[in-house]
Please model this.
Amino acid sequence: MPEIKNPICVAIDTPDLERASFLAQSLKGYVGYLKVGMEFFYAHGQAGYMEMARHGVPMFLDLKLHDIPNTVANGLNALMQLEIAPAIINVHATGGPAMLKAASDAIDGRAKLIAVTILTSLDDDDLKAAGFNPQLNTCAHATNLAKLAQTNGIDGIVCSPHDLQSIRSACGKDFLTVVPGIRPQGVDVQDQKRVATPKSAIENGADILVIGRAITGADNAAVAAQRILESL
Ligand code: C5P
Model:
């Protein structure tokens, strides 16, 4: 039987190092990836990152780099020097073609390099205010940016479950899709607006599910992760 890789990436959204490390230890064997972002990395630096990475679960270092090509390339190179390098790392697709290409050249296959298209906190009015073409909606902008990222050597994108089908049809089945906004049936939606269940996201082509509070807020995080896995 072919090995089915665990698609759950748990978002460790706490600045509390002790709590983060406890979650990593509890979830080892139940999730495929641990995601730490800027609030964690800026607070605890490489030492904090390494404390998490030593639990042995592949790391997604969610720092969303966005700067000129040379700075992003050098920043990524510095991050890849971590003793346990991240398995997934990301940049903003709006950094443009030269930045995306420089990022891809810098990573050179050492990690999966993915791009953020349109932040899910932005709606059509926000994009219009920022000067984006008002004729296109957020899904169309996200799809265009995904295509731009793919053309410039990026391995995949972060996208809403609601944009999956459009991005899949534009970028094909080998383009990695990393999908937040996941809520198992019956779990509070909280501040997320465009959500899907784990099963429907997978059915619509998600490769990796980014799940935070549905796991980290449960009484027993490992049991919550196990239930989600069984629901797929
Ligand atoms: O707790 P919850 O499952 O909503 O957490 C989702 C995680 O995915 C958080 O770390 C959030 O920052 C991240 N994320 C998101 N939407 C994006 C990109 C990342 O919710 N577009």
